[in-house]
Give the backbone structure.
Amino acid sequence: MLLTWGVFAAWVTFYCSQHGMHAEGKDVELVLGMPRWVVFGIGLPWLLANVFIAWFSMCFMRDTDLGAEPGAEAAKEVSS
Amino acid sequence: MSASDSTLLSFGIYMALVFLLAGLANVERGKKRFLNEYFLGSRNIGLWAFAFTYAATAASGGSFMGFPSLIYSHGWALAWWIAGYMVVPLVALGLFAKRINQVARLAGAITVPEMLRRRFDSAWVGNTATLLVIFFMFFYLLAQFKAGAEIMGTLLEDVEVYRAAVVQVETSVAGIPWVNQAEGDYLICLVVFAIAVILYTAWGGFRAVVWTDVMQGIVMGVGVVILLVLTLHQVGGLPAATRAVAAMTTPEFGEATLMVEDVSDENREFLRRIWIQTSDGGMVRLKSTIVLPAGQDHVGPAEILKLTTPSEIEKVRPLAEAGVMADFIHTEPYASGAGEEGVYLTAPGPHRVSPVGFLTVGLAFSFFAFWNFSGAGQPSYMVRQMAFRDTVTLRRSILMVAGYFSLIYFPLVIIFTCARVLLPGMEIQPDRIMPELATAVSTSAGLPWLAGLLVAAPFAAVMSSVDSYLLLVSSGVVRDVYQQSINPSASEKTMKLLSYTVTAVLGILAVLAVLNPPPYLQTLIVFASGGLGASFLMPMILCLYWPRMTAAATVAAMLTGTFTILSLYLVGYVKTGHFGEYNLLGLHPFIWACGLTFLVIVTLSWMTPRVKTETVERYFGR
């Protein structure tokens, strides 16, 4: 998970700092009606992050027994 | 039926549904153990409820009021600012949701401080955690209460009865210290909002909060999609809107004298937000209401916002107030981005006072970390992670939340950059841009009733956060302070009464504190979430996975996180004169706090006595 965060953080930070910082805003190239740096620096990684999350949560992550409901200590509360 | 009536009706239906759900939750609670059900839904929350309560709690008034106001004010740079949300569901939920749920079950804990207390078998740990939750959460509540009042104000501003009530209230509270700082419309909305949310939270408890979160989450999602479609249609498509935004230059704040053509023998009131033509053909907007005394032909200085983009000036010219002109104008250009076309299309984005602009690279990286790790460190999210039923629920929820955040956050950036084209001059009240836009686009589309649903989206976001925070803080007081430290044998009836009372008192205190709120909601929200994340993230991660961690190290780390955040905000205040953080070496205080708390925990854990063996074995096995 931390590695995944690192990969996407690096992509977004590197691409946006190179192409989205102090660019000539008036002449910025548009893709799909948005500034190009937004599409390739944020939109595309966002899409791929969703694909990765789908694989991670549905195929990679294992189910675990979470244990029993709270025991004696919580049961101090009086059941009415 | 008028437009304002139909808006009010659809909004009323939404509120009725919220109370219906609270009532059902109250019935469901029935004979279950009060505290476990009231504060944790009996640890039996399923897929839809868990995913939506998590997402709706995250998408607060900040997401729907503060975030849009920042997009409107600083442009496309906000896409980078919020980009960290692309992996939030994975990091914030995947990092330790499974483990926190396990440990909470083993500990029999229903609050985060209680879990920490039992993990270390230390009252000091529990009490410190409780105090910090209450302290930072209170700031969160303030921000949400302000947001709720602002939304209601937009919704009601054309309703006759409401306008009459505003005049009445302003007269009534004129002599009451502190209360008279608030304007009448804001005061009415704040009180009505507070009463509604306190009532349904106290009535329904955690289950009502979760159920209403599901409904509110759906309302938010649907609201954003509809708003996106209507906005894009009315600006002529995204490419046209982006090109229009590219031609914009920053406005200027300042002062002007208002001159009238005809002198009147009665006072004349110039309301906040009206447009006034200037003597040189420009347009300014009033930032606050000002009264021209009878018999005079001018009044000033009045606080104004002056437009500098020709297309915006022409767009608002037909709205100019008749018979009045602004003259002797003195304005200040933005410290960053003034006069530059295209400044709203790239980072760092314009800024009124900061010469380096809104978003530096270091700050953008900080926020990429902040949304993920600060999110993971929020007790309001942790308590939800203690409530899901099983890991199948967790896995599916991660996917569902990821889709939901994508549906909400990226479209919001598109919507509110387009809002610059539709509603010029909203910099005077940026936190109201969301409800203003919702009302404007639905009215223009000939569907005024739709404004009720669209305004319900940010309202739902605010309510779903307020109820969670109210419950979190009241659970801290009732369970962690009263039951654990003052009266362990308190009866069910006493605990129930105390829970309701604390929820109500908290709400009232929040109302009083927020009568004169700071201008930007997001400032309060980032402070509160940064403080909570800084105080709880590292202690929580390490207490779940590192058996050697000690109680003394945990207390020291929580306090270190808190003092780091407070110190850097204090430095920020001293340097700028405004409430805001100081980004040492360009990094947000949260990043520094996390590093320091990690060091404190590791160092002190080796220097202080171990936790009792049987306690460690209970949570980590032999």
Summary: Residues 72-80 of chain A have pLDDT under 50 and may be disordered. The first strand of chain A starts at residue 30 and ends at 31. Chain A touches chain B through 58 residues (CB under 8 Å). Residues 3 and 9 of chain A are 10 Å apart (CA to CA).
